[in-house]
Amino acid sequence: MSQALVRIAAGWLLGLMLAVAGAIVAVNLVNDTVASPQQPVREYLDALHSGDGGKALGLLRATVPQANAAMLDGTALQTAASRFANVKIGDAEERPRNQVMVPMEYTIDGSRLRTEFMLEKTGTEWLFFNTWAFVPSRLPTVDITVVNASEATVNGVPVNMPNGRNTFAVFYPGEYEASLNGEYFAAPPTRATITGNNVPVAPLNLLTQATEDLKEDVGAKVKEFLDTCAAEAQKQQKLQPDCPFYYASNNTVYDGTIKWSITEYPEISIEPFGGRWVVAPLDGKARVEAVQQNSFTGANFPLNEEVDFSFTTRLDVAGDTIKVTPLLSY
To answer: Is residue 7 part of a domain?
Structure first.
């Protein structure tokens, strides 16, 4: 009887020891996974990928600076997070004051990058399971400028650019791309990669240029002006019309024989200057044909001359409407 009781007690003791050992293993496993300092980082990254800025901000425990918040939610945030790949979250490294640093390595456009997250132990749950949270911080910002424009596109989202500049609060890590894709003005995209909240970020400068559509439309208006001017000069039978071109002759030119035509239209070049868009001086060639009388011999002979001309214009663009005003000096 006593030996049977001993065997039963030993069995129970072994079972208890195995249960305790299993519980310890389970606690350690939980503390290394769902209760580890890496878990808030995983949840934060999931919030970035889903474009949930509110959840990401709550997890990060970050304050938002005085800046435009267009990048902190939705498509803009998803786009920023979608550009990093090959993510590897490393082991936590101890820091003073119950804090740890969790490293994250990843690639953006093939470049290997690293972000370090600071977390602190905030307590335990159910006596055994650690709880961790990000050390409170402040979101970084990105400055963006654009030449001669009051709007731009950042990570696929249209944004206002008062006086050609703005500052945007952003999450990290991520990549932010600014561009301008208008009908008449455009700027090639430029990117900034944000790896941390205290890493300096160079401003994004959009170098706006006139599009081919604008050059073609301005060219069409210049051509219309010159053709109209040539037709009016011919109608009025003037060698020196109110046009960019003229011809001076010492001979008598017969009315009814004067004909003007444009033989070379100006090339259009549009550049920013002084906060405006300026059309470079317009150079071209015109031909005048007529019958004239020699002042000395009285003989008639043809006039057929090509003359150079040059003039400037004022360009005004409002939305999809452009106005070209020739500026002629006499």
So the answer is: no
Residue-wise pLDDT tens digits, 164-173: 999 999 999 9
How does DSSP classify residue 267? Answer: P
Q: Which two tokens stand for residue 59?
A: 């997890």
* Residue 322: HSE in the Cβ half-sphere, 13 Å Cα cutoff: 22
Q: Which domain holds residue 267?
A: 212-327
> Per the domain annotation, does 276 fall within a domain?
yes
32 Cβ contact partners less than 8 Å away, ≥ 6 residues apart:
none
Asked whether the whole model's pTM tops 0.85, one would answer no
Residues 26 and 103 in one domain: yes
Phi, psi (rounded to 5 degrees) for 215: -60, -40
CA dihedral of 120, 123, 129, 134, whole degrees rounded to 10: -30
Q: Are the C-beta atoms of residues 306 and 261 closer than 8 Å to each other?
A: no
The model's pLDDT over 217-275, given as tens digits with 9 standing for 90+, comes to 999 999 999 999 999 999 999 999 999 999 998 889 999 999 999 999 999 999 999 88
Q: Is the residue at 32 inside a domain?
A: yes
Gap between the Cα atoms of 223 and 205, Å rounded: 35
